[in-house]
Amino acid sequence: MLILAFDTATEVATSALVYDGEVLGERSSAPKTLLADLDALLRQASAHAGDLDAIAVGTGPGSFTGTRIGLAIARGLALALDVPAAGVSTLDALAAGSPGAVPVVDAKRGEVFVHGPRALRPGELELPAGAVCIGDGARKHRAVLEERGFKVPPDADERHVPRARFHAALAVEFGPADEIVPIYVRAPDADRVLS
Predict the structure, then answer these.
(1) What are the helix (H) ranges across 82-148?
(2) Is 64 exposed, middle or buried (0-12, 13-18, 19+ CB in 10 A)?
(3) Identical fold between 2-90+162-186 and 91-158
(4) Check whether domain 2-90+162-186 has CATH 3.30.420.40, yes or no
(5) First-last CA distance in the chain
(6) Residues 6+ apart with CB under 8 A from 122
(7) 146-149: which pairs have CB atoms within 8 A and are 24 or more residues apart?
(8) 3-state SS, residue 13
(9) How far is CA 167 from CA 79, 143, 186, in A?
(10) pTM of the predicted model, to two decimals?
(11) 184 phi and psi, to 5 degrees?
(12) Which of 27, 30, 85, 130 lies deepest, with the highest CB count within 10 Å?
């Protein structure tokens, strides 16, 4: 099965082309260049969009806008190519890349997203001493987390990025892309301003 996988919920968009578990190509960039990255992955593998069997997309939690971008692209591609899609939690993809580590995604507003899923302040995170925290939220709130006795790998460590190859590996239930539900955890900032 040829799967095109991507996640745009964090500050780094990741994408991968995976055939029967083998990674044919992988890219990381800004979310705004995702379509160019997807095209480059297909070209690199000498494949065409019509060769795809399925799409796997990150569902967050993370940036509200980033998550929406990824889902919109997944829905558009799945509809145009008549292929099924599956949603995979960004937190689950991070965890798959570093078994035993705790995924921590930046939630803005001085908070982080963690499994549950839930949003909380980094100082409220309750973990055993020495727990390893990964993700853009762990990098951003390194000082608070390390002060609490947790470990955060160096900023350049690839475990901080939800690699799309893990989305492809974790995707099991494929179906209509318009049925994929994003994981927002809380209302978007725009809703807070309007209320």
Answers:
(1) 90-97, 136-140, 142-147
(2) buried
(3) yes
(4) yes
(5) 46
(6) 104, 110, 111, 112, 137, 141, 144, 145
(7) 148/123
(8) strand
(9) 20, 29, 23
(10) 0.93
(11) -95, -30
(12) 85
How are the residues of the chain apportioned to helix, strand and coil, as percentages rounded to the nearest 5? 40, 25, 40
Residue 118 parent element (H or E): strand 118-120
Judging by DSSP bridges, how do beta strands 105-106 and 112-114 pair with one another?
A: antiparallel
Cis before 117 (ω within 30): yes
Q: How far apart are CA 110 and CA 181, in angstroms?
A: 25
53 in Cβ contact with 2 (< 8 Å): yes
Contacts 24+ apart (CB under 8 A), 25-30: 26/163, 26/164, 26/165, 28/161
**3-state secondary structure at position 2:** strand
Q: How does pLDDT run along the chain (195 residues), one tens digit per residue?
A: 999 999 999 999 999 999 999 999 999 999 889 999 999 999 999 999 999 999 999 999 999 999 999 999 999 999 999 999 999 999 999 999 999 999 999 999 999 999 999 999 999 999 999 999 999 999 999 999 999 999 999 999 999 999 999 999 999 999 999 999 999 998 765 555 555
The two three-digit tokens of residue 192, written as one number: 């807070």
**DSSP assignment string, 17-69:** EEETTEEEEEEEE-GGGHHHHHHHHHHHTT--GGG--EEEEE--SS-HHHHHH
* Superfamily for domain range 91-158: ATPase, nucleotide binding domain (3.30.420.40)
